[in-house]
Structures are given as structure tokens and as C-alpha cells.
Amino acid sequence: MAGPTSDVSEPGMTTHRLEALADGIFAIAMTLMVLNLALPEAGKGLTELHSLLFGQLDKFFCYALSFVLLAVFWISHHQQFHFIKRTDGKHLWINIFFLMFVALIPFSTSLVGDYSQEPLAEVFFGSNIFMLSMLLLCSWLYATNHHRLVDRSLDARRIALAKKRGAATMLIAVLAIGLSFINPQISSFAYLLIPVLLGVLRYRQQKTTGVTV
Questions:
Q1: How many whole angstroms from its chain centre is CA 94?
Q2: Any residues with CB less than 8 A from the CB of 5 and at least 6 apart, and which?
Q3: In this predicted model, what pLDDT tens digit does every residue of 23-37 receive, in sequence order?
Q4: Most exposed of 62, 96, 152, 166 (fewest Cβ within 10 Å)?
Q5: Which tens digit of pLDDT belongs to each residue from 50-73?
């Protein structure tokens, strides 16, 4: 077991490189999602423009929802690496697979926007969100197990709060997948619970213990 000050990082691979890779992939994924929105043809009249814009309300909602969800995951990833001081091979691969599913979000968003009535599209999107939640939680569990990749002084309450937030995100994804079989359009609104619930957990933890993550 590595001590709190020992260097267990792989040669040439630091958390800084991993964070830079994550920032780049998040930025590209968040930018690519706007390409799902169709532009009007030049010379079209005002009526056609209105029809095009209002005809894409579902896609605009999917774009905004996915953008916010990616922002939530980016913030959570950033918060994790405020406390994760080093990395190793297993931790790197957990994060690489996490980033693989980040890069898949533009496709998942496009799928839901084009097939908003199809349960399979919502299941695919929900599975994408579930995998992101699970892998981010796995990254935290691996890093904090016996303080493997974090400082020994890291408060146990901080560790526990991050675990709760990760589990809550996974449960909401499962809820949305279940709702997709009942009403695909309603299931998308379940994801709005993610930023709300994470905010509530953070507020309650701060209020009772003074700990923030």
C-alpha cells in the first residue's frame, strides 16, 4: 500500500495530463452538440424560419439538457481531482473509459432529438448517463479506498458525500430509463433532478457538518 506521500504515478503520466485530456474532451463534446440543430436555408421567409425553429424545440431541449448534464459531470470530475493527488494505471483506465462515454454524449443527444418518441433512444441516452455516473463513482471509490490516491488527511465526510452524489446520479439515470418505457418524452425531464439533488446533498452536508465538496 502506498503511503500518503509516496509517488505511485505511472512514469510520465500525472493527474495534470489526465485533467487536460478531460477538459479537452468535455469542451469538444459540449461544442459538437450544437451541430444537431438544423440551420435555415438562405432566402427562406419569416414563416419558414419560425416553423424551423419551433419544429426543433425538442432538439433545443435535448441540447440544453445534455449541455447542463455534461457541465455537472465536468464539475464533479474537477472536484474529484482537487483531492486526487496522484494516479496509477488502473485509475487512468477508469477515467479513459469515463471520457469515452463523455465523447458519446453528442451522439446520444442526437439520437434522442431525432427519435424522441422511441423508448430505445431514451434507453440509450439513459445508459450513457448511467455509465458516466458509474465510472465517475468508480474513479472516486478507487482513489479513496485506503486513501490510495488522496492525502491521508482527507476528511471521511468529504469522501462519503461524493459517494452519495455519485450513487444519486446513477439512481436518477435508472429512474429515467424505467420511465422511458412508460413515456419516452417524460423520461427526459427526470434528468433535471440530477443538478437539483446534487445541490440539495451539498447544501445539507454543508449545513450539518460545514463540509463542502
A1: 14
A2: none
A3: 999 999 999 998 877
A4: 152
A5: 676 776 788 888 999 999 999 999
End-to-end C-alpha distance for the chain, whole angstroms: 26
Give the single-character DSSP code of 147: G
Burial of 1 (0-12, 13-18, 19+ CB in 10 A): exposed
Residue indicated by cell numbers 448511467: 130
Sign of CA dihedral 72, 73, 77, 78: negative
Cell of 96: 479513459
Name the one residue in this structure whose C-alpha cell is 473509459. Answer: 97
Residue 132 contacts residue 100 (beta carbons within 8 Å):
no
Report the alpha-carbon distance of residue 153 to residue 174 in Å, rounded: 34
Torsion of CA 148, 152, 156, 159, to 10 degrees: -40
In the chain, the amino acid numbered 156 is A
Asked whether 117 and 133 are in contact (CB, 8 A), the reply is no
* Better-scored residue on pLDDT, 51 or 93: 93
- Go through 173-188 and write b for each residue having 16 or more CB atoms within 10 A of its CB, e for each that does not: bbebbebbeeebeebb
Question: pTM of the prediction?
Answer: 0.85
Segments making up each domain of the chain, as ranges: 15-209
